């Protein structure tokens, strides 16, 4: 199974333009599973200068419906998603209806009215079993019943101040679970990515430029 970690540069809040850059990388990617970081369509959520998050969710829904995913490929995309009972930070596996919502929203999200997810999710694709952790879910991993998996996706947005600490947490989780972790992240304020393959003490990362990190898993 080949996984493509997509790392476009974005403009915070410019959802239409960001979707165009994402589509360009989708068209280039060779993977069976294409993965995007947290808040990739919008940029990271801050209460100080963000539009209404409910408006962001509506705009994201329109753009996601327009993505053209090549036959046989799947896109794991994170965005704000409106459900019947409220707004959540959610990873959706397009073109399926499978999704996983962040179990532990951070303080900014809670203040914005974003609800926690209600259940952990295991995905099955190409003969592989995998799960997703979003942002603060990693710090609360001891409260999540991680089953036997082939790999784990970590969807996140870093700040320049905590990137080293969080990557250390990822390595510790990989060692503890004896499991490869694929990191797909937005670097807040810079609006470019940080993509990495982590297998215990092994770390392979793509730099800050736009691009794609392709990973083959046997």
Number of strands: 13
CATH superfamily: Carbon-nitrogen hydrolase
Report the β-strand fraction as a percent range.
Answer: 35-45%
Oligomer: single chain
The domain count comes to 1
Q: Which architecture per CATH?
A: 4-Layer Sandwich
User: What is the residue-averaged pLDDT?
Assistant: 91
In terms of structural class, how would the helical and strand content be classed? alpha/beta
Contiguous low-pLDDT stretches (5 residues minimum) are: none
Question: What is the H/E string?
Answer: EHEHEEEHEEEEHEEEE
Distance, first to last CA: 6 Å
Query: Approximately how much helix is present in the residues?
Result: 10-25%
Q: What is the CATH domain class?
A: Alpha Beta
Structure annotation, total helices: 4
CATH topology: Nitrilase/N-carbamoyl-D-aminoacid amidohydrolase
Most strands sheet: 7 strands, mixed
**Mind telling me the C-alpha Rg?**
16 Å
User: Per the principal axes of the C-alpha atoms, what is the gross shape?
Assistant: globular
InterPro entries: C-N_Hydrolase (IPR003010), C-N_Hydrolase_sf (IPR036526)
Protein name: CN hydrolase domain-containing protein
Domain CN hydrolase: 1-218
């Amino acid at each position: 199974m080949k996984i493509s970690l997509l790392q476009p540069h974005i403009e915070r809040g410019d959802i239409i333009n960001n979707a165009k850059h994402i589509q360009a990388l989708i068209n280039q990617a060779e993977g069976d599973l294409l993965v995007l970081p947290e808040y990739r369509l919008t940029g990271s959520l801050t209460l100080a200068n963000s539009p209404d998050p409910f408006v962001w969710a509506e705009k994201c829904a329109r753009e996601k419906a327009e993505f053209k995913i090549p036959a046989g490929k799947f896109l794991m995309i994170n965005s704000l998603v409106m459900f019947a009972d409220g707004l959540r930070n959610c990873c959706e596996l397009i073109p399926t209806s499978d999704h996983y919502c962040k179990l532990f929203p951070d303080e900014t999200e809670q203040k914005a009215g974003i609800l926690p997810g209600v259940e952990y999710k295991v995905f099955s694709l190409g003969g592989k079993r995998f799960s997703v952790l979003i942002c603060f879910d990693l710090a609360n991993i001891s409260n999540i019943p991680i089953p036997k998996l082939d790999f784990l996706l970590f969807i996140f947005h870093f700040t320049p101040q905590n990137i080293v600490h969080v990557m250390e947490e990822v390595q510790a989780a990989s060692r503890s679970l004896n499991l490869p972790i694929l990191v797909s992240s937005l670097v807040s304020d810079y609006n470019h990515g940080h993509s990495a393959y982590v297998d215990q003490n092994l770390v392979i990362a793509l730099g800050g430029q736009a691009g794609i990190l392709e990973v083959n898993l046997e």
